[in-house]
Design goal:
heterodimer; A: 572 residues; alpha+beta; 3-stranded antiparallel sheet; 16 helices; B: alpha/beta; 5-stranded parallel sheet; two-stranded antiparallel ribbon; 9% strand; globular
């Protein structure tokens, strides 16, 4: 059977390789391999747990807030620190802004070119493009002149023979189905979204000093002072600025992103029948509504198994384990066991081919190791995480707005709920979630303003800042819903220093390899039966893989080598 | 290098710009060039008449933070850089092509136009496990870097991982990670833009500088452009007056924190960190870490993950305070003048630290020369 290799999978964060067996025009089997490894957990050992957020934050610069959030939550959980209400609100705003910005970037800059043919846009009629744009939205940048300008700009690159980032893609592939006008509209919005994200994320700079890698996180709270009477703190100017950021984001999402998503999806409804995946969904939940130990969450946590939308199981962190049977690590007790993160161990053990290599040498029922990702399992089962998991859990849990929007999208596309379990379902769920969060953020700004007005200026729990206030031994877990899904950090602290640190991250859940029982990970399962019209140009594989929004650097860092030989390399 | 330096000095003098204003000057150039309908129209048209310089952006042991920073470019905007000024032929995070086709985009300029394109490297290069800690298309990061950077007109190492090894190289450096200068010795025209991530304003200014003048700017002893790394954070900090006045934040959220006092006692590494954050700030001048109330963590300096941690422990060895004095005992003192001495001392500390690293590949450009 022809072996299709996609390496690098581009338009993702990090380094991902897909090998697939393609026969009779469809994927018969697939392997997901992550090809980069850094070892950040071992680097964390022996360090001050209050520093850990900055280290883990560098796991990923795309979802640049998520590992910082999970880390401070884990350490706070371990030492019993209780951040005040303003810290919760600031974090919610930062998390929300990350989700909205990340999802928009994913749609336009990481995923759209699987559905949108840039070269076809050259033959679009700007007047017809204008009519199309105005039929789906009242967004003002829609005149024939505007689209003429975009088309001419594109034409300039083609005429000079320098397509730059658009060069040598699968343009003209029969799987591209949009009319030229829809392609031109999408290209225009690709460019607009580049500018939009840059402006919107200034909200992170206001709250975190800069983006990427915001720098206002603290174990026990936030470092951004709140004081309506100071120029050097979040004040009423800031509140006004935040309101504006949120309003602009909601505007772009409502009038550009969602209409584009629905318009493009209407040409690709058959993709509601591809990319089904493992059918189990896990969400930790996010956006705490109060400051109690187990706060109500705006987006709920829970488990859905076997695509059964009749019930949601409660999440139990004790049921999270990881396998390394097909990962380039070894366990002391043998590679057939699965370990909980508190007991987690990871000794790198590369057994793949020495680079440069053409193929990983995989075949059906392989027992070979083939990825730097571990295989996380919940109660022994592979789980899909991400916007689809969150929206399904919220939907079944009775979240009113989620139910309303899911219903509206299904109706507009004229498909049933089973369409959600698919490549297209992931794309739609991401859009629905963006809309919901963009709508919610105002409430957090208002609550912050109300606190300011009431003289509630606390941003930090100082009582646990000094390590001498901590127990000699402490363990804690921090959970977060990153844009790409459920993220957990587990930390053990001994005498004020980190003794063990483990992260189980969204792209490990989704992109991990087979487990000891040979069960595929969600990417691998979702790729089965994906049509591939031309094995030389497997755009269909990209569609399904990109629908998960891969973020490999997040997934590929879990190392906790107890007996590792430390390599010190000096420049020659 | 000295010829360029002389040219630059002449240019600056001609424009009546002092060295202190060099950064502002560079930003102005960038702003002018980025707006095709302004004074830069002539230069823009000159660029357009020639083939756009090809940019090959490599990602190795990275987090894509510098890529994201790149996407936040304000002058010129990311869209303009991508589409108008440069031909971004290879960048895994943004390019449409994938797999074999993407590799062709990378290898074509290397094979057909060696010595003409610009390579950008993001992320460190692992040397352990025969290269298996980072492969792309089955090739090791080291092999790719040798091929692409070795044939480039210039290589820009962006971010502290690509410049100095960064977080993967933090102790105990599990994968044998190195920056470009150490992993691929002899790369010509290597320019380091350190920081975690690098500020895109500095990448923009650098690229605009090159496109405008067809040459690279003068560098410091760590191969970083002087316009961005010539002064310490502390020297240009908006809170400097509070440092000099002995007004410090004592606890997160206290009155001093809310009033914007100095973060030195909370662990600020600004005195030992060289970058232009206080001047250009981040995200189009919106803010910067100290501006939002958190100490500088020293992210533009070599080995900062080891040398600048614990992040919340204040620096010691402050002149005037006694080498091992406890800052807590002198916080109330007025220390007028001490800051300047400390700035000089901080520079010496940095130079000493650098001395512990492998020698730079080309003659050093001493600081302060102009």
């Amino acid at each position: 059977m022809p072996r299709v290799v996609v390496d690098p999978v581009t338009r993702i964060e990090g380094h991902l390789r897909i090998e697939a067996e393609v026969d009779r025009g469809a994927v018969q089997d697939a392997w997901s391999s992550s090809t980069m490894f850094r070892g950040i957990e071992i680097i964390l050992r022996g360090r001050d747990p209050r520093d850990a957020w900055a280290f883990t934050q560098r796991i990923c610069g795309v979802c640049t807030t998520v590992h910082a959030i999970a880390s401070i939550r884990a350490v706070e959980n371990a030492i019993g620190s209780a951040p005040p209400p303003n810290a919760r609100l600031l974090r919610n705003l930062i998390i929300g802004a990350q989700a909205v910005q990340d999802h928009v970037i994913h749609f336009y800059h990481l995923h759209a070119l699987d559905w949108v043919d840039v070269v076809s846009a050259l033959s679009a009629d700007p007047a017809k493009t204008s009519s199309l744009a105005e039929s789906i939205s009242n967004w003002p940048l829609s005149s024939p002149k505007y689209f003429t300008g975009i088309r001419d700009r594109l034409k300039g690159f083609v005429d000079r023979g320098q397509l730059g980032p658009f060069a040598n893609a699968y343009w003209g592939h029969p799987a591209y189905r949009l009319p030229p006008e829809a392609n031109l509209m999408a290209v225009a919005h690709y460019l607009e979204a580049l500018d939009w994200q840059r402006e919107f994320i200034k909200m992170h700079a206001v709250l975190g000093g800069k983006n990427p890698h915001l720098q206002s996180f603290l174990v026990g709270g936030m470092a951004t002072p709140v004081d309506p009477d100071s120029q050097a703190a979040l004040n009423t100017h800031t509140i006004a600025a935040l309101k504006q950021f949120v309003a602009n984001a909601r505007d772009f999402v409502t009038r550009v992103y969602i209409p584009d998503l629905l318009a493009i999806a209407s040409f690709y409804k058959d993709w509601a029948g591809h990319g089904r995946g493992v059918g189990n969904y896990l969400a930790y939940g996010e956006y705490p509504d109060d400051d109690t130990a187990n706060p109500p969450l705006f987006l709920p946590s829970g488990i859905i198994r076997g695509r059964d939308l009749s019930k949601v199981e409660p999440f139990d962190q004790g049921k999270v384990t990881e396998y390394v049977s097909h990962s380039w690590y070894q366990y002391q007790a043998g590679d057939g066991v699965a370990l909980h993160p508190y007991q987690g161990e990871t000794s790198p053990n590369y057994t793949g081919p020495t680079p440069p290599y053409e193929l990983l040498g995989l075949e059906a029922n392989t027992d070979k190791k083939y990825s730097w990702l571990k295989s996380p399992r919940y109660d022994g089962e592979p789980m899909e995480v991400g916007p689809l998991a969150r929206m399904l859990v919220a939907f079944v849990s009775g979240h009113a707005r989620v139910k309303e929007l899911v219903g509206a999208v299904l109706k507009q596309l004229n498909v049933g709920p089973e369409a959600l379990f698919s490549t297209l379902g992931r794309v739609a769920a991401r859009g629905i979630e963006t809309q919901i969060i963009a709508e919610k953020m105002d409430a957090w700004v208002d609550a912050l303003a109300a606190n300011m007005g009431a003289g509630e200026l606390r941003i930090h729990d100082n009582s646990k800042w000094d390590p001498s206030t901590w127990p000699a031994d402490a363990m804690g877990a921090g959970f977060h819903e990153a844009p790409r899904g459920a993220l957990g950090h587990w930390v053990s602290i001994h005498n004020g220093l980190i003794s063990n640190y483990q992260c189980v991250v969204p792209s490990t859940w989704n992109a991990g390899p087979r487990d000891a029982k040979g069960r595929r990970g969600p990417y691998e399962e979702a790729l089965l039966a994906t049509p591939v019209a031309d094995p030389e140009r497997p755009v269909e594989i990209l569609r399904t893989v990109h629908s998960f929004d891969p973020c490999m650097a997040c997934g590929v860092h879990v190392v906790d080598a107890k007996r590792r030989e430390v390599v010190r390399v000096r420049a020659v | 290098m000295s010829r360029q330096r002389g040219w630059l000095t002449t240019e600056l003098e001609h424009r009546g710009v002092s060295r202190r204003e060099f950064l502002a000057f560079c930003t102005t150039m960038a702003a002018a060039l980025a707006l095709p309908d302004r004074a830069a129209a002539q230069i823009a048209s000159a660029i357009q008449r020639t083939a756009k310089p090809i940019l090959i952006w490599l990602e190795f042991q990275d987090c894509a933070g510098n890529t994201e920073s790149f996407l936040r470019a304000s002058r010129p905007s990311a869209a303009e850089v991508i589409l108008d000024m440069l031909s971004l032929d290879y960048h895994e995070t943004v390019m449409a092509a994938a797999g074999r086709q993407s590799k062709e985009n990378r290898d074509r300029p290397v094979k057909e136009q060696p010595g003409t394109y610009i390579a950008v490297v993001e992320g460190s290069i692992p040397t352990g496990a025969n290269g298996a800690y980072c492969t792309i298309g089955g090739e090791s990061a080291l092999d790719i870097a040798r091929s692409v950077c070795g044939n480039a007109a210039a290589t820009i190492a962006i971010g502290t991982c690509a410049t100095f090894g960064g977080i993967p190289a933090a102790a105990p450096n599990p994968t044998g990670a190195l920056g470009v200068a150490d992993a691929v010795p002899g790369v010509k025209n290597l320019i380091n833009l350190s920081a975690c991530p690098a500020n895109v304003e500095n990448l923009t200014a650098l690229l605009v500088y090159y496109l405008t003048f067809k040459r690279w700017p003068p560098l410091d002893h760590l191969r970083r452009p002087l316009f961005a790394y010539g002064k310490s954070i502390h020297d240009n900090c908006e809170r400097r007056a509070h440092y000099d006045a002995g007004q410090y934040v004592e606890a997160w959220g206290d009155a001093g924190h809310r009033a914007g006092h100095c973060l030195y006692k909370m662990g600020c590494k600004g005195p030992a960190t060289f970058q232009n954050c206080p001047n250009v700030k981040w995200n189009g001048g919106t803010n910067w870490p100290i501006g939002c109330g958190h100490p500088c963590i020293g992210c533009s300096e070599p080995d900062f993950w080891d040398r600048m941690t614990p992040f919340y422990q204040h620096l010691t060895g402050v002149p005037g305070f006694g080498v091992n004095s406890n800052i807590d005992t002198i916080g109330a003192l007025a220390v007028l003048g001490v800051g300047a001495a400390f700035a000089g001392h901080g520079l010496i500390q940095i130079m000493k630290r650098v001395g512990e690293k492998p020698e730079p590949l080309t003659p050093k450009t001493p600081k302060g020369e102009s």
